[in-house]
Amino acid sequence: MLRILASGLLISSVLISGSAANNGFPRCNCDDEGSLWSIESILECQRVSDLLIAVAYFSIPLELLYFVSCSNVPFKWVLFQFIAFIVLCGLTHLLNAWTYVEHTFQLMLALTVFKILTALVSCATAITLITLLPLLLRVKVREFMLKKKAWDLGREVGMIMKQKEAGLHVSMLTQEIRKSLDRHTILYTTLVELSKTLGLQTCAVWMPNETNSQMNLTHELNMRNFYSCSLAITDPDVERITKSDGVNILVPDSALAVASCGQAGKSGPVAAIRVPVLHGSNFKGGTPELVHTCYGILALVLPCQQQRSWSNQEVEIIRVVADQVAVALSHAAVLEESQLMREKLEEQNRALQQAKKNAMMASQTRNSFQKVMSDGMRRPMHLILGLLSMIQDGNLSTDQRLIVDAMLKTSDVLSALINDVMEISAKNSGSFPLEMRSFSLHAMIREAACLAKCLCVYRGFGFSTVVDNTLPDHVMGDERRVFQVILHMVGNLLSSNNGRGSVILRVISVGGSQEWSDQRWAGWKQSSSDGNVYVRFEIGVQDSGPQSDASSSAVQLGRKRDASEGLDEGLSFSICKKIVQLMQGNIWVVPNPHGDAQSMALVLRFQLRPSIAIAI
To answer: Is pLDDT at 22 greater than 60 in this prediction?
Structure first.
């Protein structure tokens, strides 16, 4: 406005001056007596004006000098030119004020000199200003750029403030969400806090069913009857949301938007985002990344009365909150799985405690039974042994004494077997004490053969013995245990054979290398110079009559396999096998030796006593 006014005044003065110079009037009408101003008054006014102009001109340099000294202003030399120009103008007006009265030639000369200097300085200043215009324009451009940068900086500061505000909202929402580890509480708290923060009309959560075939409305802010609301998993909006990791703005007529609002046509814009859903079963057999991930949908609805739209800040808040909800739901799934595992472990612990209690009760019952059986079995056995001892002390014939001795030996073996069974049941150790003492091997074989013959005759079998005449007589070992094992071998063969035949007992001294061909006991063979003797007991069953056809051989082999497979089934055989192993021997089924249908072999090591071996 001031520029326009100054331009108008300048143009008006130029026009008035031109019209006054060319209108044909005299140069000045100052001598006219009827004029308002006289010459003296006009001159006096001009003189006063020049003085005031001079004073003003002299005051301006002082202000400029103070400004230059107090600030770091560029182009100071231009300011000094202005100061010199103003001072000279002031001097010119001051000297011109004295020319309105009588004055000397020196005054006019000084006035002329100062006018010339003023003209020179003004021209130099004008030329300097022409050179300064590009610099001034550059400064103006720089000022514009600085203003633009300041505006951008202000916008960035505003965005930072908005992000800070959004961060505060997200932090508050996260704290509220993380207060609980229950899945339903987390989802409902998310709906409530998002509604408060964003000013929503309503919001809802959609979850997939067990077969992942449709989406069900499981949580809603308004708590209406939503259990019947469901959408197919193949809905276009559902597929678009589950395949995108950002916030999706739904169209008003979308099926998901209408179902989330509850009132079609009376809601604002709807935004939706997916939320990963993990179950406890996802953590079995691997990490959640290795299983198919299911997604829920979080739908948020703005009020329709406010004519609002989703801003970038609100969208960012929704995205971050959805990530936090996914993390909270995964923690809840882990906690649920750990709770199930804890309950399962507690149930297993209760089962183990019950099993332990049952085992202790069974152990107590077994101990009570063993005590009763020990008293009920050992007392009659001791009575039988006492009666046999009394009969043995009487006058008996040779055959009678042989029978009584065999009965006494058998009773002794049976008593030892009862003691072993009771001791195994009580200690569960599987070890048996051995009574290593010197005994007569020949006498033991006679007694075992006598008793074995009785058993064979009772079962309808024949019996014969084949004994090596080089067997030593006096050896060191457990006579009772050897007798027990031989009787067991005879009884096992008789029990596994339903036909008729003859039982053969072979007792040989193992010495030659050809007799060590069996790999079952060749590993612990030692030299005969170590003071020990190895005795092999073989008991076989031969069928009566010639059996040369293939079918009979097959039957015999089948019986032999059945017998060999059934050896480990009885408690008696397992006890005998442990006894043989304790005596550093071995017992096994011989594969059809000497044409026998069935046969068992026993190899034992005895320590020789210092006596001469004699034949039986």
So the answer is: no
